[in-house]
Amino acid sequence: MADQGTETERREITSQILSSRREALFEIDGALKKINQGKYGLCERCDKPIGKRRLKFLPQARYCMKCSGV
Ligand SMILES: [Zn+2]
Q: dksA C4-type zinc fingers: which residues (predicted)?
């Protein structure tokens, strides 16, 4: 009985993780393609290095800080 609430909560959290993971997978797939092309870590817009700190934080980043508008 006491577990019912937790179970629902867990299901909700799991579906949230799954939906955000699907998007992340798409991004990671793009990042892997860029690694193959030797372009990983470069901004897709200005071709400048995205920056190690940003990549550490967001490994699938496609744009540099400036271009992503953050
Ligand atoms: Zn850029």
A: 43-67
| pTM across the whole model | 0.59
- 14 Cα to the center of ligand 1, angstroms: 34
For 28, residues 6+ apart whose C-beta sits below 8 A from its C-beta are 59, 60
| Domain CATH number, residue 60 | 1.20.120.910
**Number of domains within the chain:** 1
Range picked from 28-32, 48-52, 66-70 for highest mean pLDDT = 48-52
Residues with CB under 5 A from ligand 1 (ion): 43, 45-46, 64, 67
CA–CA separation, 34 and 39 (whole Å): 5
Structural domain range at position 16: 3-68
